[in-house]
Each structure stands twice: as structure tokens, then as C-alpha cells.
Amino acid sequence: MPLVTFSNPDYKDKTVYAVAGSHTETILKLAKEYKVPLHHDCQDGECGNCLVRVTSVDRKGRMSGFLTDKERGVLVELGKLTKDDIDRIAVDDMPSEWRLACQMIVRDEDILVEY
Ligand code: FES
């Protein structure tokens, strides 16, 4: 069962046990379900208000994650991804540490979500 820990310097950390294998829940949906005060607006990958930093907290390291063109564009616009980052992610099949919570699906991995 994946563990998702939400962290913000203004709030006490909150650890959520996500449902393994659902592969349909976004970070934002999980945050709302567990009343984590994660900023959001459009919920459609356009405004960038739900920007989060995601890191691994288990030994396996992060699983790669698919970025849609829309999410990639917003992350570039926010200055969180460069062209080099995009190339590295594509070539090395690496995950981006910056994600939009409304776009990232929770996978079977333990992660820290800073918001
Ligand atoms: Fe707007 Fe996620 S809520 S991009």
C-alpha cells in the first residue's frame, strides 16, 4: 500500500495511506479526500495553482511518470522545467520532481508531496 505524506511548513505533516492499485486517484483528489489544504483552482492542468514537489521516501526511488503536453507546458511556464529537463525526462525515463497535483496519478510508491 503506497504511503503519501503531505508536507507544508505552515501545517503539520499528514500521512495518507493511498489505495494500492486504484491508479485513478490524483494527488489533488487524495488531498481533498483527506482534507489537506492544497491550493487548486481549475483542476484541469491549466492554472498551475496545485504545483507540488514530489520526492521518493522509499529505497526503490521514484517511478517515472507521464507528463501530458499541457502539464509540461504549465511547468515550463512556471519556471520549474527547462528544455534540458524535458529532454532528460524523455531520454532517461525519469520522473519530474515538480508536478501538478491535479494531473499526477498516485502509483504504487511511497512519496513525499510538498505543497
Ligand atoms: Fe489548476 Fe491543477 S488545479 S493546474
From TrEMBL:
Residue stretches making up the 2Fe-2S ferredoxin-type domain: 2-115
InterPro entries in alphabetical order: 2Fe-2S_ferredoxin-like_sf, 2Fe-2S_ferredoxin-type, 2Fe2S_fd_BS, Beta-grasp_dom_sf
GO molecular function: 2 iron, 2 sulfur cluster binding
Family annotation (SUPFAM superfamilies): 2Fe-2S ferredoxin-like
PROSITE patterns in the cross-refs: 2FE2S_FER_1, 2FE2S_FER_2
UniProt signal peptide: none
Matching Gene3D superfamilies: 3.10.20.30
Name this polypeptide is given: Ferredoxin
Source organism (scientific name): Thiocapsa rosea
